[in-house]
């Protein structure tokens, strides 16, 4: 597996191109991602959204149109791709495949899994490919996603952190913003974040 990453837009949202067996998956194509994506893919097969916030889906439609590939998005966040709930002027896009909960799937021979960790958004998920997590805005290096946006839930965030705490395997984590980390490293401070979230709900 090869991973290319580029921070995009004012929020410096990481867009990833993941190449497995010569096939490219595009994860979270945010603002101004199109040019970089088109210059760095050779055999694109899908666009994957970790969640529906504008800075992760901004160039969904443009890239889908340019490359004629499908969009996969968590079902609970699909409304964000058309309704622009944060009022950012996000170009509308329409997912071709809706992911429900924890779902394993195969795209052009590439096995992957969406793991549902709601809280930041209702559909917030990580995308697991092999021993790598693309964690969107659920988990960052020494931090977690905000739980105070419209449609966010502190209650769900606590449950998601507890779920992540229970996972025994280690994963390399590529987040939606900032540097890569590991699940084991973040599990060491998850109790702190659970307490922080609980103090607000």
How far is it from the N-terminal to the C-terminal residue, by CA? 40 Å
Shape: globular
| Low-confidence sequence ranges | none
Instruction: Using the coordinates above, name the CATH class.
Output: Alpha Beta
Q: Describe it for me?
A:
It is a single chain. With 201 residues, the chain is of the alpha/beta class. The protein has a single domain (2-198), classed as Metallo-beta-lactamase, Chain A (4-Layer Sandwich). The chain is built from seven helices and 14 strands. The strands form three sheets. The protein has a six-stranded mixed beta sheet with strand order 1-2-3-4-5-6, covered by helices on one side. Strand 5 (71-74), helix 4 and strand 6 (97-99) form a beta-alpha-beta unit. Helix 5 (154-165) packs antiparallel against helix 7. The chain starts with a strand and ends with a helix.
Q: What is this structure's SSE topology?
A:
Elements: E1 2-8, E2 13-20, E3 23-27, H1 33-40, E4 44-48, H2 54-57, H3 60-67, E5 71-74, H4 80-83, E6 97-99, E7 103-107, E8 110-116, E9 125-129, E10 132-136, E11 139-140, E12 143-144, H5 154-165, E13 172-175, E14 181-182, H6 183-187, H7 190-198
Parallel strand pairs: 3-4, 4-5, 5-6, 10-13
Antiparallel strand pairs: 1-2, 2-3, 7-8, 8-9, 9-10, 11-12, 13-14
Helix pairs in contact: 5-7
